[in-house]
Design brief:
- The structure is a single chain.
- By secondary structure, the chain is of the alpha+beta class.
- The chain has a domain of about 160 residues: Ribosomal Protein L22, Chain A.
- It is about 30% helix and about 35% strand.
- The chain has 7 helices and 10 strands.
- The strands form 2 sheets. The protein has a 6-stranded mixed β-sheet with strand order 2-3-4-5-1-10, covered by helices on one side. The chain has a 4-stranded antiparallel β-sheet with strand order 6-9-8-7, covered by helices on one side.
Amino acid sequence: MLVTSYVNIASTNSASMCIHSAPDSGRVPTANRLKRPIQSRAAHELLNALLKREGLDSPSMHLTHDADGRPLLYRGQEPCSIAVGLSHSRTIAACAITDLGAIGIDVEFCADRHFQGIAAAAFGPAEQALVAREGQCAFYRIWTLREALAKADGNGLARLTDGSDYFADAPGIGSWRAIIDGQDWMFWTGVVADKYAGSVAIAPRETLPAPDAAALAMRLFSD
């Protein structure tokens, strides 16, 4: 089982996920104060909606986080076999659930920034060269892939910014598999919504067929 999906928080259909997250402080909160609580709430509501849609929810199921901040599902006191990935950026919230193995998901708004400087501080030499040649699209593709990988393997910032090459030869869009540190990985990367890049990383517990791009790709959530 593998499901990846996203919602646009600003859309009418997603408004019910986030509007009640606004703090009632007696004055109108600023956009910056509202953004992260709304994004986080939308990602968690999307997780609940996916579990319900797939027939996987139960009254005893709840979400917690490990010491590294990775989301973990529990049924009562027992860890659940379903792995969870969550991400959000501006008006997009994304979620992935699977029983195939550890999973990471990342979505990023493709903002104008000094991406070559960030690449120099975090990426491998070949990845940096690719960003220098191809610009913003290559930067966000590699960044979201590294984020998804770091979330799935639990190494967090250390993996994200370790200066090693992982994705210099990755396709511009679609799915593939690779071996990293002896672990078989399945990846997907592509455009999630207008001006957003997204990636998914899975470390399967057992050997699986070649990844299906349609199965890995993030889709707009629907009931």
